[in-house]
Write a structure and sequence with these properties.
Blueprint (H helix, E strand, L loop, with lengths): L2 H10 L5 H4 L1 H9 L13 H9 L1 E3 L2 E3 L7 H12 L3 E6 L5 H13 L5 E3 L6 H4 L1 E3 L1 H7 L6 E3 L1 H8 L2 E5 L6 H13 L1 E4 L4 E4 L5 E7 L10 H4 L2 E6 L5 H18 L9 H16 L18 H18 L6 H12 L5 H12 L6 H14 L1
Parallel strand pairs: 3-10, 3-11, 4-7, 7-10
Antiparallel strand pairs: 1-2, 5-6, 8-9
Helix pairs in contact: 3-4, 4-5, 4-6, 12-13, 12-14, 14-15, 15-17, 16-17
């Protein structure tokens, strides 16, 4: 494919994989590599850390992809150097999937070997399935087989991703135990076993709020090194994460709006942190929490939606009316009590915060009816 055609295709894609979005940074890190590279990897663990946490490679500035505890990232990377799989656990919105994608992008240059865990995920999606037309016509053959992302990763000595593993049924989780223990997949229809090449591993993510859906067995947990990703420690850290992701989203989407000002981001993050923790930031007043988590990821989504409103139906500047529309939907969800929690927050907290918050209070009050 010609370079021009490839660029046009990439421009038409709604979401580019990490290895394409940050190709310049990955190429710079590979070109300037000075440390040993593990089998199957494209760069050293130190370079992967720089790619994830930010820094410089030659003249190229490496933007941070994960803003948080660098030591946790070091543990995650060093796990993948061994023959152990990696399990990232945390509250919704703690960048588990984001970190998983960028780790595989840096290590393999391909983050697309992914299985999205749901109640409908089957064991065949973990192992392999068949093209049934070819199977009926010619019987079992390698050509009739449809390998799973994990199967392909084993053949190529690369990393596969399993998102929301605790949402998968127990028999699907059990299929992983054999793969992670034996490092091979048996194909009885063909009378062969496919061994994993060096470099193969699995990165799985699990949501602590959903651990009761299909709780992982102790046997499966033993096959993973577990890294718990915490929520942002401070308001400033959460604001930095939100501002970074909003800037990236704005570059990919036709929002036709200016980036929200720091004060706007601060208001959203303040509201989310207080309702999440059940106490005001100064610790002086306790609050009722909502049924939803109000994660950092939801704050990013809220601001992106506010920008879309401002760009499509306003003057391109995010207003309190745009914010209020997003807040209403983010805070008040299925649980009817959330409406009461939000109303109490408006009257007891936001209303009393002075002139900077008055306009937002009035817009939220009007929507809350």
């Amino acid at each position: 494919m010609e370079r021009g055609e490839r660029l046009i295709m990439e421009q038409e894609m709604q979401r580019l994989p990490a290895e394409q979005l940050f190709q310049k940074e990955i190429d710079a890190l590979i070109a300037n590599e000075t440390y040993p590279i593990p089998t199957g990897w494209r760069m050293s663990p130190r370079s992967v850390l720089t790619y994830i946490c930010g820094g410089k490679s030659g003249d190229v500035e490496i933007t941070p992809k994960y803003i948080g505890h660098e030591r946790l990232v070091e543990i995650a990377i060093s796990t993948l150097v061994t023959d152990r799989a990696l399990l990232l656990i945390g509250e919704p919105g703690t960048a588990k999937s984001w970190l998983s994608e960028h780790l595989t992008a840096a290590i393999n240059g391909d983050s697309t070997r992914v299985i999205q865990g749901t109640a409908g995920t089957t064991e065949e999606q973990i192992r392999y399935s068949w093209n049934y037309a070819m199977l009926i016509a010619n019987g079992p053959s390698r050509e009739a087989m449809i390998p799973s992302p994990i199967y392909r990763a084993m053949e190529q000595g690369m990393i596969a991703r399993v998102e929301e593993i605790s949402r998968c049924a127990s028999e699907v989780q059990d299929a992983l135990i054999s793969i992670l223990s034996e490092k091979r997949i048996s194909v009885p229809e063909l009378g062969v076993e496919i061994p994993a090449r060096k470099g193969f591993s699995v990165i799985a993510t699990a949501n602590t709020r959903d651990k009761g859906v299909n709780d992982m067995s102790a046997a499966l947990k033993r096959r993973f090194n577990i890294v718990v990703l915490p929520s942002p420690e401070s308001l400033e850290a959460e604001m930095e994460i939100v501002e970074t992701r909003i800037r990236q989203l704005a570059g990919n989407l036709d929002l036709n709006a200016r980036l929200p000002e720091a004060e706007v981001v601060k208001k959203v993050c303040t509201i989310f942190r207080e309702l999440r923790a059940g106490v005001t930031l100064d610790g002086k007043q306790k609050l009722k929490s909502t049924s939803g988590v109000l994660s950092t990821a939801e704050a990013i989504s809220l601001l992106a939606n506010s920008m879309a409103l401002a760009g499509s139906f306003g003057n391109g500047q995010v207003t309190d009316a745009d914010l209020a529309a997003g807040l209403q939907g983010a805070v008040v969800k299925e649980d009817s009590k959330d409406g009461k929690v939000w109303e109490e927050y408006l009257e007891n907290i936001m209303k009393k915060r002075g002139s900077k918050w008055l306009s937002l209070y009035q817009e939220c009050r009007e929507l809350n009816g």
